[in-house]
Amino acid sequence: TPEKPKNFIRQIIDRDLAEGKHQQVATRFPPEPNGYLHVGHAKSICLNFGVAQDYQGTCNLRFDDTNPAKEEAAYAQAIEEDVRWLGFNWNGEIRHASDYFEQLFDYACELIEKGLAYVDELTPEQIREYRGTFEIPGKNSPHRERSAAENLSLFKRMRAGEFADGAMCLRAKIDMQSPNINMRDPVIYRIKHQDHHRTGDAWCIYPMYDFTHCISDALEGITHSLCTLEFEDHRPLYDWVLDNISIECHPQQIEFSRLNLEHTVTSKRKLNQLVTDGHVDGWDDPRMPTISGMRRRGFTAAAIRDMCDRVGVTKKVNTTEMGVLENCVREDLDRHAQRAMAVLDPIKVIITNYPEDQVEELSAPNHPQHDMGTRTLFMTREVYIDRADFREEANKKYKRLVLGKEVRLRNSYVIQANEVVKDDAGNITEIHCTYDPETLGKNPEGRKPKGVIHWVSVSHSLPAEIRLYDRLFNIPNPGSEADFVHAINQESLTVLTNARVEKSLQNVAPETRFQFEREGYFCSDRYDCKEDRLVFNRTVTLRDSWAK
Ligand code: ATP
Ligand code: MG
Ligand code: MG
């Protein structure tokens, strides 16, 4: 197969290496620990760590932890676990923007001393008003022309905790008339009397993202700082800060488009709302587009990486269909998941000519094409089939069990339905069949039953809870709704409590993936599946049957 053309970022890297601008590539993945990672972050992770891998460079995991109000150590831990699970590892110790607080403070002082930053006392509302808009140029703060000495003294007193939140801030002195609003004297430090999950009460002033990020990159010797498109307008500020402080390294910021996925949201704020308001059962609910949610649902890391690869890296804004992700999952599981039988909605079949106490051990392959070993199925007089696999009458298109007709039990015999038993309400409670003992592994004489259905033995099967998941939102782009909560699919979870699974699943380990034949791909629940209570999550159906 011909090699795929390299994405534009890899082309830039190739050129930089060829020109000798760098000897080695260094990237970073910089999440803010204010929520769990989602499928969009997976794209950034695959890009940053993938580049480092392929160019024998390095990639740092750096927590962008400058906003103590929203950040927690528990989020940081979950992020670490998710990056590892996705199959990546970082260079050396985990980094934190908060590791650099002291250096960041010194660089801020340097800007002040150079007359490039000042302490402002406008209120946050006034700052907004003075900043102007795209049409209206900004105007200078009355505090803009303080002396460096006065600014330095005030900034140090800010750090010492002498002033209340919002009373003052430090601003870069750039250009209030700039057509780029980010350059209109951006705030680079604010006062926040709030403990930080790593630095405790050491600081009551915290640096802003635009000031922190570029310096953190430079301190780590990052060569290519890859970020999403919304930071394009921040690049002049990224460069301005690094150009005006005494630091050698000047990483190149390159922007790419975010990953958006249909039928879900990829904003931490919205995902947080789903969790907080109880629309889902936690950040790792299998319906969530979080990495931990997708993992719990049964998606593989390889499938998520494959999807990121197929989506590619460009500057084009677009939204990926859920089907792309689901097809990656199907392909991976079709190849790697072993087969098993589960009856989701059981109805009892009594095979009247099968000896009452007989139990036959039948061998079934774990995979139809690849050698993944075999397992034992138990054939008995009473078996369960799915209620949807039987009809009293049906036309020729229905290739399952019909009264008076034959069908094959997968990996077992051909049976024929002879009569049904019904309860008072008219519901079928039993189907009485006969089997043809000559049909194990071969067709019956002179006829060829069309259908094959799955089944389990009544006595040699186990009860299981099966959770069927569907898309969390009814519409392709819930994020664009006035209130995305209204677009939640109320039928996104169906719990089946009467299901039966074959006995080979008795001691299944958590997070084991299966194709339940004819039903779909399933995964034993990471937390709830125990020896005495089997729980399986449907990862994805066998085919894309979702009605748009
Ligand atoms: P959110 O908007 O969900 O809060 P964020 O960008 O604020 O996301 P961060 O924790 O700051 O979240 O993101 C860490 C990195 O992941 C950043 O470099 C960011 O650009 C990248 N990233 C976040 N969302 C996406 C996405 N949908 N597609 C690609 N990259 C993303
Ligand atoms: Mg961010
Ligand atoms: Mg954010």
Automatic annotation (TrEMBL):
Residues 337-436 form the Glutamyl/glutaminyl-tRNA synthetase class Ib anti-codon binding domain. Residues 452-525 form the tRNA synthetases class I (E and Q) anti-codon binding domain. L-glutamine binds at residues 64, 209. It comes from the Bacteria. PROSITE patterns: AA_TRNA_LIGASE_I. Signal peptide: none annotated. Its EC number is 6.1.1.18. It catalyses: tRNA(Gln) + L-glutamine + ATP = L-glutaminyl-tRNA(Gln) + AMP + diphosphate. Gene3D superfamilies: Glutamyl-trna Synthetase, Domain 2 (1.10.1160.10), Glutamyl-tRNA Synthetase, Domain 3 (3.90.800.10), HUPs (3.40.50.620), Ribosomal Protein L25, Chain P (2.40.240.10). ATP binds at residues 32-34, 228, 258-259. Its main location: cytoplasm. One of its GO terms (cellular component) is cytosol. It is found in: Cytoplasm. Keywords: Aminoacyl-tRNA synthetase, ATP-binding, Cytoplasm, Ligase, Nucleotide-binding, Protein biosynthesis. Residues 24-334 form the Glutamyl/glutaminyl-tRNA synthetase class Ib catalytic domain. GO terms for molecular function: ATP binding; glutamine-tRNA ligase activity. One of its GO terms (biological process) is glutamyl-tRNA aminoacylation. A motif ('KMSKS' region) lies at residues 265-269. Belongs to the class-I aminoacyl-tRNA synthetase family. Monomer. This is Glutamine--tRNA ligase.
